[in-house]
Amino acid sequence: MKEEGKQERRNFDLEQRLIDFAVLIIKITESLNGSIAAKLISGQFIRSGFSSSLHYGEVKDAESRNDFIHKVKVVLKELRETFIALKIIRQTSLSKNQELVDKGLAECNELISIFVKSIETARNNNKTKTYA
Fold it and tell me: What predicted TM-score, i.e. pTM, was given to this entire model?
């Protein structure tokens, strides 16, 4: 019973972390200057940044381990897209708040690492699964 509570807390923490990341994406988007490039990247950036947290809801309802892996890969894809957008924003100084962008890069990188490890663990568990 104790382990179940710990798992629920970890899941909630990751969910909350993704929500906090989406909020950070909003703040970064609002910090972008009014250039044509900033307007162009902001739409795609906010979609991919939000999408990772929204797709996480689907991960929690995966119907099988393979479905779980597939859904986590979708979250990971969105995070990687967001990471590239953040790098572009940083390198082109499109944001008026580079510190916020750096915070976004660090958090996105950590989230990517978490989901890469999650996929790796699920794949390894698939290989070691025994059937009765």
Answer: 0.85
